[in-house]
């Protein structure tokens, strides 16, 4: 698929708003799951930035389009020029400036990070035929000295170098990395390119987070806040943050949010082509069901590997069946299936919906099986047979 589509999908996964007083307040991997603008702790202003960046990615808008759309709204809200902001946690105040240069930086960073995450998704999809990743600079006088040293470096996808040095590696960094095969590298070398096969030694410098006082080590040549791979961490962290937010929400609100996500294009994309380490919420367990399962939290998550397995088994018709998971939990019959596992069965419109829930190793409730069975298939289903429900028409609801 086209790179803009991957970038748009990556941006959509940053659905949570992350208020901040300083840019360090939402640091490195946290940007992978949440949308933040340095110095914006006011939710409505943050949502305005998110909406306009979203539109720029969706419609291929330019910086001029972005600025023209958002500037009047910022002026109307009093967020133009010198703006006094307050840290909601400490009450500390400071003045930050919103002007055309600031808009350009916000636009640039968000689009570069979204495109970087989208490119990593493409790298993952191509790993069977292109198992290497190659670093490439723009090869002009603006390239930073350290970044120039990494030009032509080709390493396996799973090499730890890509956890910290996957571009962009700083403010307005224009470097890129892309999937290649040995054949590709041979062609580059035939054209005169120098290919480097060994990762350079990594030196570190200390960085002090002004908000927390935390001292961390940053690789030399990478700006603080950029020493992470947005494509690698986004899936894991997005799932964890989503799960935490849903567990903390009022039950009706959480169920409504999950239902909205199940109707989104992002969930349809996930079912069709989940990324490694990705997971999506598909339903909310009742407190009693979570306690019976021995689970930590109520958000029922669908891991990428399970979505891939279920699609390969052809045991369901896709998104509509996941959308029915909440009803199966609420109206179906529950049957214990050993420690840390429950099976829910619901007869509906001449079909039987079967949903198996397990407690993951970290205590998170996970969807393990989802099947839509015709009445003639009930007797052959191994789970129903194991539970003594293998007779056609036995499951009720």
Tell me the layout of helices and strands.
Elements: H1 3-12, E1 16-17, H2 30-33, E2 34-35, H3 43-59, H4 63-76, E3 81-86, E4 93-98, H5 100-125, E5 132-136, H6 145-149, E6 154-156, H7 161-164, E7 176-180, H8 182-190, E8 204-208, E9 215-219, H9 230-248, H10 251-262, H11 265-272, E10 279-284, H12 287-293, E11 299-303, H13 304-313, H14 319-323, H15 325-331, E12 333-336, E13 341-348, E14 351-359, E15 365-374, H16 382-386
Parallel strand pairs: 1-2
Antiparallel strand pairs: 3-4, 5-6, 5-7, 8-9, 10-11, 12-13, 13-14, 14-15
Helix pairs in contact: 1-5, 3-4, 5-9, 9-10
Terminus-to-terminus distance? 42 Å
Biggest β-sheet strands, sense, barrel: 4 strands, antiparallel
- Show unreliable segments: 15-19, 23-27, 392-397
User: What is the arithmetic mean of pLDDT?
Assistant: 84
* Number of H/I helices: 16
Tell me the Rg in angstroms: 24 Å
Please estimate the helix content.
Answer: 40-55%
Q: What is the topology, as strand order, of the major beta sheet?
A: 12-13-14-15
**What structural class should be given to the helix and strand makeup?**
alpha+beta
Number of strands: 15
Shape: globular
Strand content: 15-25%
């Amino acid at each position: 698929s086209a790179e803009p589509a991957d970038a748009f999908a990556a941006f959509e996964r940053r659905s949570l708003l992350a208020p901040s007083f300083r840019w360090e307040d939402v640091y490195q991997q946290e940007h992978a799951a949440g949308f933040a603008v340095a110095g914006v702790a006011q939710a409505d202003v943050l949502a305005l930035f998110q909406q306009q960046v979203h539109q720029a990615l969706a419609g291929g808008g330019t910086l001029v389009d972005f600025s023209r759309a958002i500037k009047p709204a910022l002026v109307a809200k009093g967020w133009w020029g010198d703006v006094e902001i307050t840290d909601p946690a400490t009450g500390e105040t400071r003045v930050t400036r919103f002007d055309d240069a600031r808009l350009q930086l916000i636009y640039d960073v968000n689009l570069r990070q979204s495109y970087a995450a989208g490119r990593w998704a493409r790298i993952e999809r191509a790993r069977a035929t292109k198992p290497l990743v190659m670093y490439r600079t723009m090869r002009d006088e603006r390239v930073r000295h350290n970044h120039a040293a990494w030009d032509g470096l080709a390493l396996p996808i799973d090499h730890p170098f890509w956890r910290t040095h996957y571009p962009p590696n700083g403010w307005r960094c224009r470097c890129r990395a892309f999937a290649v095969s040995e054949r590709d590298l041979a062609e580059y070398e035939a054209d005169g390119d120098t290919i480097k096969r060994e990762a350079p030694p990594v030196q570190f410098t200390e960085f002090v987070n002004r908000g927390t006082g935390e001292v961390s080590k940053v690789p030399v040549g990478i700006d603080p806040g950029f020493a992470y791979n947005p494509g690698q961490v986004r899936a894991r962290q997005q799932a964890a943050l989503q799960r935490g937010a849903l567990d903390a929400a009022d039950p009706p609100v959480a169920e409504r949010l999950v239902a909205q996500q199940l109707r989104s294009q992002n969930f349809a994309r996930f079912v069709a082509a989940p990324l490694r380490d990705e997971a999506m919420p598909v339903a909310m367990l009742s407190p009693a069901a979570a306690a019976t399962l021995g689970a930590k939290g109520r958000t029922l998550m669908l891991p990428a590997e399970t979505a891939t397995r279920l699609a390969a088994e052809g045991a369901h018709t896709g998104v509509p069946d996941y959308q029915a998971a909440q009803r199966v939990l609420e109206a179906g019959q529950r049957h214990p299936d050993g420690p840390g596992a429950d099976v829910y069965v619901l007869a509906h419109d001449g079909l039987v919906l079967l949903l198996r829930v397990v407690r993951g190793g970290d205590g998170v409730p996970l969807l393990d099986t989802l099947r839509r069975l015709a009445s003639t298939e009930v007797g052959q289903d191994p789970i129903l047979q194991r539970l003594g429900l293998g007779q056609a028409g036995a499951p009720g609801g």
